[in-house]
Design goal:
The chain is an alpha/beta fold and about 375 residues long. The chain contains 15 helices and 13 strands. The chain has two domains: about 10-175 and about 355-370, Glycogen Phosphorylase B (Rossmann fold), CATH 3.40.50; about 180-350, 3-Layer(aba) Sandwich (Rossmann fold), CATH 3.40.50. The longest helix is centred in the first third of the chain and has 26 residues, at about 75-100. The chain is elongated and about 65 Å long.
């Protein structure tokens, strides 16, 4: 019996974790048949070398394309970015002609633009996925001609005025370890109150300044049952650790990076953090209430992400201008003292979750191949 060769799908991602992790989740799903679709041969296309080590750990074949964002750079900077995009497009075109993919899937970023343009030129089905409420520049451009536009939030449609293809609202694919932790989450049986503080590298300093001071303002009885788990920048580590050590807490865990995030989410009573879509959806999947402090970006996309969670009652949103120890104290104490509200917020968070997003998006890509 002659075994047929797997068909190839190219999966493109921009140079951020928000783009990359959903792309890898879908890529890995497409490599395996699930009973409703066949397995494909998948190659990952990256813009630059950031997160290259993450891709290499998956074992997926990958290619890097030249790419640069068209931010406010001035005329020379824009010209340089166009030059990189042109080089990326030529490399992408050669790649498409050589690999002969049956579909191209992208999660945004400027490397995705080059590959999608090349695929469109060769008549290959194109599918894009947008993670945030407010679509990024690359996906706003690509939505004009992509065959399928997959959205995380229905609210995104209001920002896409020229969609030509099919639209599917499917959520954002998450890391499998988060999904496994959500499936195995147990009912809490301890009086310890776990506060998980996530800042990452971007915009984490204000969290390292405000949260420890707020904790010091809590009554001694609240501190005695509070376990703080906080991610900090490297240069804040000693200061934050020293501050917490003097406060008589039930427990302290301060790290610059957590390798066991599923466990941290599973134990958390509240998350305090920025509102990148990954954090918002991971909290939703784990059913964890949150206090979001949106990073103040020019396009305001983190505010929009947070507002979706706030609207359904899953989160409290505190704009950075009002993120002071005194204001945060009011919110934290209110939640520590109101288990009914805390449980209600957790259930509301679960209502935002789409644990089947990886399967659904992979199926959408497979259907585009058939069509």
């Amino acid at each position: 019996m002659v075994q047929t060769e797997k068909r190839t799908i190219l999966v493109a991602s921009g140079a951020s974790g928000g783009h990359l992790f959903p792309a890898l989740s879908v890529a890995q799903a497409l490599c395996e048949a699930d009973g409703t679709r066949p397995a494909f041969h998948v190659k990952v296309i990256l813009g630059g070398s950031k997160f290259l080590d993450v891709v290499e750990r998956t074992g997926l074949p990958h290619v890097r394309l030249p790419a640069a964002a068209f931010n406010d750079r001035g005329p020379l900077g824009i010209l340089w970015a166009f030059g990189k995009l042109a080089r990326g497009f030529l490399k992408a075109l050669k790649l498409v002609m050589r690999e002969k993919p049956v579909a191209v899937f992208g999660t945004g970023g400027y490397a995705t633009v080059a590959l999608m343009l090349a695929a469109k030129l060769r008549g290959v089905p194109t599918i894009i996925h947008e993670q945030n409420v407010l679509p990024g520049r690359a996906n706003r451009f690509l939505s004009r001609f992509a065959d399928v536009v997959v959205l995380t939030f229905e609210e995104s449609l209001g920002y896409l005025t020229s969609v030509k293809g099919r639209v599917v609202v499917a959520g954002t694919p998450l890391r499998e370890e988060i999904l496994e932790a959500a499936r195995g989450k147990k009912v809490k049986d301890s009086d310890v109150f776990n506060l998980l503080v996530l800042g990452g590298s971007q915009g984490a300093r204000i969290l390292s300044e405000v949260v420890p001071e707020m904790v010091g303002m809590l009554p001694a009885a609240d501190r005695a049952r509070l376990h703080v788990v906080q991610q900090v920048r490297g240069d804040d580590f000693e200061r934050v650790t020293s501050t917490y050590a003097k406060q008589g807490l039930a427990g302290i865990t301060v790290e610059t990076f957590f390798t066991d995030m599923p466990k941290r989410y599973a134990e958390a009573d509240i998350v305090i953090g920025r509102s990148g879509v990954g954090t918002v959806l991971e909290c939703a999947t784990m059913g964890v209430p949150a206090i979001y402090v949106p990073l103040e970006l020019a396009d305001g996309h983190q505010k929009l992400n947070a507002s979706v969670a706030e609207k359904v009652g899953a989160a409290v949103v505190v704009e950075q201008a009002y993120f002071t120890p005194a204001n945060l104290l009011v919110h934290v104490r209110a939640l520590m003292q109101d288990k009914v509200r805390l449980d209600s917020m957790g259930k509301a968070a679960l209502g935002l979750a789409r644990p089947d997003a990886t399967r659904v998006v992979a199926q959408v890509v497979a259907e585009a191949v058939k069509n």
